[in-house]
Structure formats: C-alpha cells, structure tokens
Amino acid sequence: MEVFHAHFTEYAYPMHVHDAWTLLIVDDGAVRYDLDRHEHGTPLGTVTLLPPHVPHNGSPATPDGFRKRVVYLDTSRLGSDLIGRAVDTPGLRDPVLRLRVGQLHGALAHPGDELEAESRLSLVGERLCEHLRRTATAEHRPDPVLARSLRELLDARVVDGVSLEEAARLLHAHPAHLVRAFSGAYGIAPHQYLMSRRVGRARRLLLDGLAPGEAASAAGFYDQAHLTRHFKKLVGVTPGRYRRSSR
Predict the structure, then answer these.
(1) Ranges for the HTH araC/xylS-type domain (predicted)?
(2) Rg (CA), the chain
(3) In this predicted model, what pLDDT tens digit does every residue of 98-146 receive, in sequence order?
(4) Range of lowest pLDDT (37-46, 150-159, 165-174, 202-211)
(5) DSSP states of 86-132 as a string?
(6) How far apart are alpha carbons 12 and 6 in whole angstroms?
(7) Residues 78, 87: contact at Cβ < 8 Å?
(8) C-alpha distances out from residue 144 to 140, 186, 197, Å
(9) pTM over 0.90, yes/no
(10) pLDDT per residue as tens digits for the range 63-94
C-alpha cells in the first residue's frame, strides 16, 4: 500500500493504529514501542511486524535516534486471523527475511521493476505467514513443466511484460511457487530472465542504429535510465557507449 523511509532523532510517535500491516526494518539505531500494553524493541537485525488495528507507539531507543524503512501491507497479503500471533511476537529474528525485505525496498525504488518487486513481496509474504502460523518451510519440489510454461509466457511478453499476479492466474499457480519453480529450474529469477531478454533486444536495436531512448521504449524498459541501469549491469557499459563502439 505504501513505502515510508525516515530518520528520526527525537520524534516520538503517540499511540495510534494503522489499517494495514506495518513491516519495519531499522538500519541504524533502535526503536522502543508499546504494542497492546507490552513493551518491545528492535534489536539489530530483526524484522518487526505490527498488525493492523492494534494500538502502538514508537520512540528512539538510542541517543542518535533511528533510521527505518517501512512497507505497509494490506490484509490481502496477511489475513486478520494472524493478528493475534503478531501481537504475541512482533519481532522476528530471521536473517533471510530481513535480507528479502531489504531487497524488496530496493526493487520498489525503481520504476519498471514491478515484476521483481512482486516476486520479492510474494516470497516475503510467504515467509511471514510461516512465522505467524508456526509452520516450517515446506520442501519445494522441482516443477519443470510450470517453469517452462512461465518461460514461454515471458518470452511472448518481453516488451509488454506480465505481472506476477497475472502469470499466476494464467498458469494456475501460487505466485511464490511460480517464482521458486522458475528459479529452481533455470538458476535465475523470472524478473532477471525478463530483464536479460530485454537487454538482449536493446543490444540488437542499438546495433541497428536506434538511439538509447528509442531502444529503451522498443525493448520494454520504463525509460532510458531504466535501460541504462540494467544494460550496464549485464553488458558492462552504458547503452550510449555500446552504440558508439559498434560503429
């Protein structure tokens, strides 16, 4: 629903509630807060999940304040039946989850990377549910047929793209299972595969003489900056330099 990054040194939140789930990581400092009349904190490396409709506050727990990143999730991601469990254990010590939440923030910062953001959000939501339902991570069996079906869909939609939600609906699979099946079969995440196909298309267009801005649009990128970021990551040079060197 919303992303919020902030650095507070003295400000203290009064008691308040949210309509959404609050998924919080603290990068510097620490926060102390009361949730349902119980005091909690944010030890380094933890992930904090505050449930909707439950009063809480928040204030710096260190002299230099705190720097935080927050994602607000609606109840379609986490059901209201999990609120009680979240009240009992809002602090989650899970390095993998924290890493994935950080990666989600990174993906959300870049327009055009919606498939990556959807994929990362799906895996984050799955792991949060596992914590709240006290279930162990199930063994994920290979599903090459599903993986191939997703690859064919991505190949057919290189320029137009496809959301994870639409792909899951078309292929009758849970989004998180779709991501795991593809990554397990090909050793690359769906969003990485799509971007590599787009970069390949952009390379051919640049060799044909198109300017980087034109190639970006024709290859399915959000804008030229979006193309440049992924092109340089995969090719090692900017699109403009690649185009000039090919003459």
Answers:
(1) 148-245
(2) 21
(3) 999 999 999 999 999 999 999 999 999 999 999 998 754 455 678 999 9
(4) 37-46
(5) HHH--EE--HHHHHHHHHHHHHHTSTT-HHHHHHHHHHHHHHHHHHH
(6) 13
(7) no
(8) 12, 9, 20
(9) no
(10) 999 999 999 998 888 888 899 999 999 999 99
Return d(Cα 71, Cα 107) in angstroms, integer. 12
H helix or E strand, kind and range, residue 38: strand 38-41
- Amino acid letter for position 243: R
Residue 42's nearest CA partner among 56, 26, 18, 63 is 26
Distance CA 159, CA 220 (A): 4
Would you state the structure tokens that stand for residue 84, as one six-digit string?
A: 């009680």
Q: Which amino acid is at 220?
A: G
Return the residue matching tokens 């449930």: 51
- Under 8 Å between Cβ of 2 and 77: no
Residue 191 CA to residue 44 CA, distance in Å, equals 30
